[in-house]
C-alpha cells in the first residue's frame, strides 16, 4: 500500500513517518525525537562534557553579557522574545546583566509547551523576581506575527543553542526569513550557530560513550512503537554519526544490523530492511562566517556583529534587517 488516502493519517507524525519509511533511502524527521522522554534526553545531552556546544555558548554569554546588553538596550525599552527557551539556564546570564543595570525590558519566552513555560516562569519568579515575564504559548512564527502586530517598542529576538543547525540550508533560510518578516528596522535577532571545527570533536559530541545520544536518536523508534503501534527492536539498530568537513554537515543515522522487518499497525505498513540499510534521522549543521552571511543575505538580513568563545567553537550573531 504505497499510496494511502490522505485521511488515513491521524497526525503529522503518522504521515511524516509513513513518507520517511517508504522513501529510498529511508529517513525520519528529527523534530519527532522530542516527546517528554526526548526532551529529558536532550537535557542530559546538554550536560555531557562531550556536548561542547552548551558550555561554549554559556562562556560567550558569560564573558560578553555587558557588551550584549549594550546592543539590546533602547531608549524606550525593549521586549526580549526567546524562541525555544527550554530551562532558560543560559538566558539567565543575560537577564541577570539586564536586571543589574536596571534595563527597561520584558522577557517573553515562546514555546509550544505550556508545561515548559510554567516551569520556566516558576524558576524565574524564584531566582530573578525582578524580571517581568510574559510567557507566550504557541508556535514560533504565529506568536512572532502576533507580537509584531501590537508591539511598538523594540524587539530583540533570541534563539540560542544552534537549533537552526537541525535544518537544511533551504529550510534555515525560510526560518530566518520568517523571523525577518516580523522584524522592523529597529529590531534585532541574536542567534547561536555552532562552528566548523576539528571533525573528531564534532563526532565525539554526537556519539558519547554513555549512549545518551544513541538513546536520543533511537527515541524515534520508541515513539513509533508507543504511538503508532510499531514493533521495532531498537537494539537491532546501530546509532551512527558522520561529519563532512567540506559541507559542515553532521548526520545521524540508525543502521539496521540485520535484514529485518518491522510493522507499524496504525500505518498499516510493513517496513523491510536489508542488512546495513540506513535510516537518516538528523542533521546538525556546522557553520562559518561565510555560510552565516550567505544565509542572512538570502533571508533579507545583515550580520551586524558576532561574539565567539576563545576557541571559536561557537558564535552568537546579531542580525538586523
Ligand atoms: C537541538 N539541536 C541543536 C541538537 C544538535 O546539536 O543538533 C540536537 C542533538 N542531537 C544530538 N545531540 C544533540
Short description:
The protein is an alpha/beta fold. It has helices spanning 12-21, 36-46, 52-72, 91-100, 114-127, 140-150, 169-181, 199-205, 212-228, 289-299, and strands spanning 26-27, 78-83, 105-111, 132-133, 136-137, 154-159, 188-194, 237-244, 249-256, 260-264, 269-273, 278-285, 302-308, 314-320. It starts with 11 loop residues before the first helix and ends with a strand.
Describe the protein in words.
- With 321 residues, the chain is an alpha/beta fold.
- It has ten helices and 14 strands.
- Helix 3 packs parallel to helix 4 (91-100) and helix 7 crosses helix 10.
- The radius of gyration is 21 Å and the shape is globular.
- The termini are far apart.
- The model has no long low-confidence stretch (mean pLDDT 95).
- The structure holds N,N-dimethyl-L-histidine.
- Residues 45, 53, 161-163, 165-166, 206, 213, 216, 282, 284 line the site of N,N-dimethyl-L-histidine (AVI).
- It comes from Christiangramia oceanisediminis.
- Residues 14-320 form the Histidine-specific methyltransferase SAM-dependent domain.
Amino acid at each position: 500500500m504505497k499510496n494511502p488516502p490522505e485521511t488515513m493519517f491521524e497526525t503529522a507524525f503518522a504521515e511524516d513517518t509513513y513518507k520517511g519509511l517508504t522513501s529510498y533511502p529511508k529517513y525520519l524527521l528529527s523534530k519527532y525525537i522530542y516527546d517528554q522522554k526526548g526532551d529529558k534526553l536532550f537535557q542530559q545531552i546538554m550536560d555531557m562534557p562531550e556536548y561542547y556546544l552548551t558550555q561554549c555558548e554559556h562562556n560567550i554569554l558569560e564573558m560578553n553579557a555587558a557588551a550584549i546588553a549594550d546592543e539590546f538596550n533602547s531608549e524606550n525599552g525593549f521586549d526580549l522574545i526567546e524562541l525555544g527557551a527550554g530551562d532558560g539556564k543560559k538566558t539567565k546570564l543575560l537577564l541577570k546583566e539586564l536586571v543589574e543595570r536596571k534595563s527597561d525590558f520584558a522577557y517573553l519566552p515562546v514555546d509550544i509547551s505550556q508545561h515548559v513555560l510554567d516551569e520556566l516562569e516558576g524558576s524565574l519568579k524564584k531566582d530573578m523576581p525582578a524580571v517581568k515575564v510574559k510567557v507566550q504559548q504557541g508556535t514560533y512564527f504565529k506568536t512572532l506575527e502576533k507580537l509584531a502586530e501590537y508591539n511598538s517598542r523594540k524587539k530583540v529576538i533570541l534563539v540560542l543553542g544552534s537549533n537552526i543547525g537541525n535544518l537544511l540550508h533551504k529550510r534555515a533560510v525560510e526560518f530566518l526569513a520568517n523571523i525577518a518578516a516580523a522584524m522592523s528596522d529597529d529590531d534585532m535577532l541574536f542567534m547561536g550557530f555552532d562552528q566548523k571545527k576539528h571533525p573528531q570533536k564534532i563526532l565525539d559530541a554526537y556519539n558519547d560513550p554513555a549512549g545518551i545520544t544513541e538513546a536520543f536518536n533511537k527515541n524515534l523508534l520508541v515513539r513509533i512503537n508507543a504511538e503508532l503501534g510499531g514493533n521495532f527492536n531498537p537494539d537491532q539498530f546501530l546509532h551512527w554519526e558522520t561529519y563532512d568537513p567540506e559541507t559542515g554537515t553532521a548526520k545521524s543515522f540508525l543502521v539496521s544490523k540485520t535484514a529485518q522487518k518491522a510493522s507499524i499497525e496504525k500505518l498499516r505498513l510493513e517496513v523491510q530492511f536489508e542488512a546495513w540499510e540506513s535510516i537518516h534521522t538528523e542533521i546538525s549543521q556546522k557553520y562559518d562566517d561565510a555560510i552565516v552571511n550567505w544565509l542572512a543575505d538570502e533571508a533579507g538580513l545583515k550580520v551586524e556583529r558576532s561574539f565567539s568563545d576563545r576557541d571559536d567553537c561557537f558564535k552568537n550573531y546579531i542580525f538586523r534587517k
